[in-house]
Here is the input.
Amino acid sequence: MSAKPVITIAGAGLVGSLLSLVLARRGFSVEMFERRADLREHQIGAGRSINLAISTRGIHALKQVGLDADVMKYAIPMRGRMIHSKNGDLSLQPYGISDDQCINSISRQILNKVLLEHAEATQKVRIHFNGKAANVDFDSKVLTVFDEDKKVRTKHQFDVLIGTDGYASTIRTEMMRGSDYHCSIDTLNYGYKELTMPAAKGGGYLMEKNALHIWPRGTFMLIALPNFEGSFTCTLFLPFEGPVSFEKLQTPADVHQFFSSEFPDAFNLIPNLVQMFFENPTGHMDTVKCGPWFRNDDALLIGDAAHAIVPFFGQGMNCGFEDCSVLNELIGDAGEEIDWAQLFNRFYKKRKDNTDAIADMAVENFVEMRDKVADSRFQLEKAVEKILEKRFAGKYISRYGLVTFSNVDYQLAFQAGQIESELLAALCQGIESAESVDLKMAEHLIKEKLSPLFKAQLGHQ
Ligand SMILES: Cc1cc2nc3c(=O)[nH]c(=O)nc-3n(C[C@H](O)[C@H](O)[C@H](O)COP(=O)(O)OP(=O)(O)OC[C@H]3O[C@@H](n4cnc5c(N)ncnc54)[C@H](O)[C@@H]3O)c2cc1C
Here is the structure.
């Protein structure tokens, strides 16, 4: 293969469009095929996370291609979780220990647009819309592309093919036909439905702008993220089946009754709620674990195509963007004559355990969001955790902080989280308020249990 092969990308979503830019900046020409029409000319349909939370890992990847400022000017900082109880009481649980530790709400469409525009502006990226990757012949290195509107099939010869075609990836399906591959897809028995809370009349927000709102109700929840023009996108997460579930919400009266009793304050702020509920699709959520993500020196999977996760840690896109940073660094280290098989193998080894770790933490975080945040014991532990993070800065970093406000391996965050939950349980035993926590005992436990992990993995503390 020539030193600078043309790279073919399937899927111009968030990860594909960022990857094309990364590769163009490294001097590669890119041919990118996207199943849908150009989203700069067509509104994307309601349903699949209109907005999402971007945090440190995602911003770091944007910084590498010089786009952090261009993107972040459209983002709204969310400093904590605003918990809505049934009786209308509100309480804010801050995400970090300082104001700059926040997550940021951004429109999927705007983010994708900015990335596509900058990718095309390099003049090294050609995007073929309405170009669905339909199947791959790896032996002859031919990708068959199907235009679903015109019903036309074309053949495209590739040097290197990268699948960024999302959680239901065709490239993955094609690769996984080989006997050396494995793939598991766990579908959560919960669905989600998006609903829009409009901006206030005359502009402005109907609820606190700088927060991620949560209505935790034990086995289900509603959340809301702010949009740039004053609206909120609300998402209901509910089991498909069971006593309180989508299957029980069959008529307008069912939906009216459910929302007005479970989320009365939100219900009063969403006109057309019942109509939207029946018009908008119900999404499902998958965890995809597969491997290896590459085939010899000719094909690789990244982003959701390789490791889709459930959305409860707000990390799917951040993790996919981190894939782009890691690949970028590996290409930088590889020099002029790239051995693609070796590069793909290195990438897979560096990422696989980490993406498995965030997949598991995302599932765990669902229970935290829909249930534990409303529990007084959990709130006490979180309050103690905040005290420890401030008092023992750099020595105690919460799992949430490691995942969301740092670039350390997800695996380290996972291991630290296990130690921290034991440590918090011990420190909260027998106390009623966070201020009574025994700081001497905390210092001792941190030194004994947490510091060795940070020292081994990060070389300090
Ligand atoms: C409800 C919800 C909330 C979320 N919230 C967050 C959040 O707050 N923070 C966060 O970081 N992540 C979040 N995520 C996860 C995030 O949406 C995904 O991780 C991210 O979109 C993955 O990007 P991707 O480019 O890999 O895949 P996608 O965004 O799915 O893009 C894939 C692209 O490939 C195209 N495509 C598909 N098949 C083909 C084909 N055969 N040929 C050509 N093109 C194809 C698609 O049209 C699409 O443009 C959320 C997800 C959901 C469902």
Q: What stands out?
A: The mean pLDDT is 95. The two ends are 46 Å apart (CA to CA). The CA atoms of residues 218 and 350 lie 36 Å apart.
